[in-house]
């Protein structure tokens, strides 16, 4: 998804109301921890099954009703409505006046997380609204033009928003705030080669007024070549990857409870290869806050396979797992990395 954010249980959502007569414009009262929602996997599975036959506004209403029936607070439901009825706030990094909200979008086909910059003016900014990013300075960058010769269809795409090192907050010299966000440079499509990353900063003055975005430069991939490394965290969504490429599974975990994720059965030989597993704790001072396990695999051959995982205490041999997750992996046979010479 390198990547953790400070998860605090204080979610603030400010809204402005129009002036009425002599009324003074005031922000709405701050919303507390009830604006965040952390549903169990079974809750989302039930909501998805109940809403699957529906579409459009009926689907949205079904999701909101599912939140309410599952015990989500009015604050959490209100926030979900404010972002279009198809997502919810998982956590907030409280910085003030502008804060960073981690938002889950469980029904998207690809990117299931996003970041909003909250409580400034405007009260919500989606960092993946690419219309806020001026392409002029990017296209003037000699590094971008060198990449474009190798990757003719190179373009900006949202980054991995489970990568919680970003947005990177800083204090501006004038006391305002700066949030640096990383975007992928892909060769024409979501599943195409990753040529590098572009960074943009979202700038705010000390009152929280949005000033604009500023191009920060390009990063190459760690080894200086193309690779496709996607992160997936929703077992209900199939993983599509090209043979020869790596991908990541990201699962919430809390080793302070004694639980860890393990493979529930061997991988399919010749199709999948395990590369690495590591734990990334959340950046917080809260004791026992947890984090995420990052599992890296390589797609070796064309075909379909399953990755079955179980969340267990390793010493409890006869105890059923606390959770299970099954990821469906679809691998196409194109091992050639486009743009490679």
Task: Describe, in short, the structure shown.
By secondary structure, the chain is an alpha+beta fold. It is 14% helix and 35% strand.
Essential attributes:
341 residues, alpha+beta, Immunoglobulin-like, 3 domains, four-stranded antiparallel β-sheet, 17 strands, globular, disordered N terminus, disordered C terminus
* Terminal residue distance: 29 Å
Structural class: alpha+beta
Binned, the helix content reads: 10-25%
Radius of gyration from the alpha-carbon trace, in angstroms: 21 Å
- The beta-strand count equals 17
Number of domains: 3
Describe the structure.
With 341 residues, this protein is α+β, with helices and mostly antiparallel strands. It has 3 domains: 1-14 and 27-120, no CATH class; 127-226; 229-332, Immunoglobulin-like (Sandwich), CATH 2.60.40. The chain has 5 helices and 17 strands. It has helices at residues 41-51, 56-69, 74-82, 136-140, 142-150; strands at residues 88-93, 99-104, 113-118, 124-126, 155-157, 168-171, 177-186, 194-204, 210-220, 229-232, 239-242, 246-253, 260-263, 272-281, 291-299, 303-312, 323-332. The strands form 4 sheets. Strands 5, 6, 7, 8 and 9 form a 5-stranded antiparallel beta sheet that branches. A 4-stranded antiparallel beta sheet has the order 1-2-3-4, with helices on one face. It has a 4-stranded mixed beta sheet with strand order 10-12-15-14, with no helix packed on it. A hairpin with a 5-residue loop joins β3 (113-118) and β4. α1 (41-51) packs antiparallel against α2 (56-69). It is globular and about 60 Å long.
